[in-house]
Known about the structure:
- By secondary structure, the protein is an alpha/beta fold.
- The chain folds into 3 domains: 7-128 and 314-437, FAD/NAD(P)-binding domain, CATH 3.50.50; 130-312, FAD/NAD(P)-binding domain; 440-505, no CATH class.
- It has 15 helices and 24 strands.
- It has helices at 15-26, 64-77, 169-178, 211-220, 225-243, 270-275, 331-334, 372-387, 396-414, 426-437, 441-444, 449-457, 459-467, 489-496, 498-504, and strands spanning 7-11, 30-34, 84-85, 89-96, 101-108, 111-117, 119-122, 129-130, 144-147, 161-165, 184-188, 195-196, 199-200, 203-204, 265-266, 279-282, 285-290, 293-296, 301-303, 306-309, 313-314, 347-348, 352-353, 360-362.
- The strands form 8 sheets. The protein has a 5-stranded parallel beta sheet with strand order 3-2-1-7-24, covered by helices on one side. Strands 9-20-10-11-16 form a 5-stranded parallel beta sheet. A 3-stranded antiparallel beta sheet has the order 4-5-6, with no helix packed on it.
- Helix 1 (15-26) packs parallel to helix 8 (372-387).
- The longest helix is centred in the middle third of the chain and has 19 residues, at 225-243.
- It is globular.
- It starts with 6 loop residues before the first strand and ends with a helix.
- 37% of the residues are buried.
Amino acid sequence: xxxxxxxxxxxxxxxxxxxxxxxxxxxxxxxxxxxxxxxxxxxxxxxxxxxxxxxxxxxxxxxxxxxxxxxxxxxxxxxxxxxxxxxxxxxxxxxxxxxxxxxxxxxxxxxxxxxxxxxxxxxxxxxxxxxxxxxxxxxxxxxxxxxxxxxxxxxxxxxxxxxxxxxxxxxxxxxxxxxxxxxxxxxxxxxxxxxxxxxxxxxxxxxxxxxxxxxxxxxxxxxxxxxxxxxxxxxxxxxxxxxxxxxxxxxxxxxxxxxxxxxxxxxxxxxxxxxxxxxxxxxxxxxxxxxxxxxxxxxxxxxxxxxxxxxxxxxxxxxxxxxxxxxxxxxxxxxxxxxxxxxxxxxxxxxxxxxxxxxxxxxxxxxxxxxxxxxxxxxxxxxxxxxxxxxxxxxxxxxxxxxxxxxxxxxxxxxxxxxxxxxxxxxxxxxxxxxxxxxxxxxxxxxxxxxxxxxxxxxxxxxxxxxxxxxxxxxxxxxxxxxxxxxxxxxxxxxxxxxxxxxxx
Length: 505
């Protein structure tokens, strides 16, 4: 008699949870998704309160409501609704080592119930808890103090002098939306950044990068660190100057962090606003000195009516209890200023619990320059095949050694500056995930037998996969016995790259 399919609880139904739920169901698991919100979408579900969401509207990019609609349509297209429980908060989970099952306690409309599952995926992401730095004297500040998580509309800070703390994507987005509403906007930063335009040579910036350029980028990493860093810095400096021929006089790209440890800033408007005087760059915030005054790192004083901390987030895995992967921290990491008071998660491939790799996984702890939706589609495809027994994990000792090596690497990066705790070597992680997911993409893009065969049989597709816009459909393109190919994959890849194909015609 056939065994009943394993049951899986997917906690969190933002993009990470939705795609994980879909890929687990596709592999035959009896999966159920839970979210305390009344709709799917996670942070893409815009709210007026101080819960973390995107801004209500973003220029150039799709509005939040468009992404929210896409996620709703995704759930509808793949018939996920019958596997989803909304307005249901998971308040406690407990693993029984004898039965090897989880008891999941949940609350809906004030009623507490429990259900047993074989496996759990925590898909709550890393943007869970706002990270607020410790600033001396902040308690005496009488103006408004908020984290970017609580910033929703520029009208809330109308006619106020606003100090933005940080120079990240959220910082420049917040600063630029305040122009025309706030009395004046300051950006306080301890280093400058590479600012990449949203469009390069008429193409969206992310469309300017492809697999071939990624191979070149990874090859650079094989060179001595000083050499590869110099080459990369020159390239990014040239790209920044190409997008913005005129930079602020004191803008120092020599101190800008490289994308080997943190994403670059992408904005078309922040540099023009700085040059026009709408936004003023100042040094790092040192301390608060009065009800409406602050002192900067260079000793100068500044008056402000409001402070907005765009200082990132901390992950929260406390729901996992004694299986929380952040309970133990390397001393070298916590002692490093680059850790920025955030914890490292001890997870194999930034996904699997070392204690319960066949029963507990986490989605949202992987970070490197990559489209997030595509990244977690591949990650959850890999997870589903591992849990289905179609791809074997290494031994416990080997997984622990891999995590230790990963953490030593992150500690070395943190010695140079702030680094995201989930940062991974993108090429190595993708190669592992491609194999684990059974997609077989990268062997078809190399110079082995499969790569040459594709080039000979379908030169147009081979060229698009190497030089075109990356598309998630590629991971469902090849039939190799490990994963069923989707018949429409080739057509969608070509459609995604139709503009470049038209230029070649």
